[in-house]
Amino acid sequence: MSPKAGRWVRLFVDYAGLVAFLAVIAITGNAITASWAVVAGSIAALLVGFGFERRLAPMPLVTAIFGVIFGGATLVFHNEAIIKMKLTILDAGFGLFLLTGALRGKNPLKALMGDAFHLPDPVVRTLTLRYALLFLALAAANEVIWRTQSTRVWALYKFPGTAILIFIFAMSQAPLMMKHMPDDEAPEESPKK
Questions:
Q1: Cα(116)–Cα(134) distance, integer angstroms
Q2: 45-61 b/e (C-beta count within 10 Å ≥ 16 → b)
């Protein structure tokens, strides 16, 4: 498979369930109908990913599992609150995971990011606590929005709303990260003559 085709397959695998869900919500305004789309889109994404890549990538697999579980439960119980609570549960779970790890003296953010950044442990702990609070706040915001707004407004909060909020938050953490980045590319002093 060419690199260009590989990128399209990866985009499809990563976003098919979400795009299908949001498209159906935009058209129908009905989260129960959109749950059919998220279940079908998630399964299709996994099948395409496995067919082209001969593997199941971890993040699309987790996304598909949650999509099928919450989408399926929404369909079985005919209750759109279930699919709307998925974001609350995921954000709260991630926030609690980060917070619990930090309180136990671990660096779960560093474990998740791996070699993506090299920062001193105290800075990583600070970032971990901040991101934990962010995800707990996003969970609370989702609860308020889905309970007080229309399904279409909630869908816009889900995407692109949360992505924009996470991006803005990440940019607000850049000064802390830049201040503590190691100087790997410090210019060498020229020899004195």
A1: 20
A2: bbeebeebeeeebeebb
Spatial neighbors of 154 by CB under 8 A, at least 6 apart, are 31, 84, 142, 145, 146
Report in angstroms the alpha-carbon separations of 147 from 20, 93, 125, 183, 188.
23, 20, 33, 48, 58
CA-CA distance, 93 to 27, in Å (whole number)?
30
Cα 15–Cα 20–Cα 26 angle in degrees, nearest 5: 125
pTM above 0.70, yes or no: yes
In a 10 Å sphere around its CB, with 0-12 CB exposed, 13-18 middle and 19+ buried, how is residue 141 labelled?
A: middle
pLDDT category at 180 given cuts 50, 70, 90 is: confident
- The pLDDT tens digits for 127-159 are 999 999 999 999 999 999 999 999 999 999 999
Question: Which distant-in-sequence residues (6+ apart) come within 8 Å of 48 by Cβ?
Answer: 9, 12, 13, 16
Give dist(CA 193, CA 191) in Å, integer: 6
pLDDT score, position 135: 97
